[in-house]
Amino acid sequence: MPRPHEEPASGDAARPGGPSRPATAEEVQQTPEFAALRRSFRRFIFPMTALFLSWYALYVLLAAFAPGFMSQRLGGSTITVGLLFGLGQFVSTFAITMIYRSWADKKFDPEAERLRERIEGAAV
């Protein structure tokens, strides 16, 4: 039998505070549900980040190494290719934000909410 100040053996009933103790962050991170949630997030974020950084790098490289192309005026106006590419950076940032928000609302947030409810429900 463990002494009062020692940690009991593993298992819910052996946790300090009994089975109603909330799960620790480390315990939650070890669950398959959390691992699946993290994988889902990474599968969305990493490609989207790579896409945006590639687009941004293209803009910077064209500005540095193709100034003639970037300074071409379109339709005889003051609007240049470089200006459109620059404005495209803002547009793509907003588009990525909206795509992420839609994805998170439909797929990520419901799964995260189910995991939170399961973890908090286990603490009751």
TrEMBL record:
The chain crosses the membrane at residues 44-66, 78-100. Pfam families: DUF485. Keywords: Membrane, Transmembrane, Transmembrane helix. The keyword DNA repair does not apply. SUPFAM superfamilies: MFS general substrate transporter (SSF103473). Signal peptide: none annotated. It comes from Pseudokineococcus lusitanus. This is Uncharacterized membrane protein (DUF485 family). Residues 1-30 are annotated as: Disordered. InterPro entries: DUF485, MFS_trans_sf.
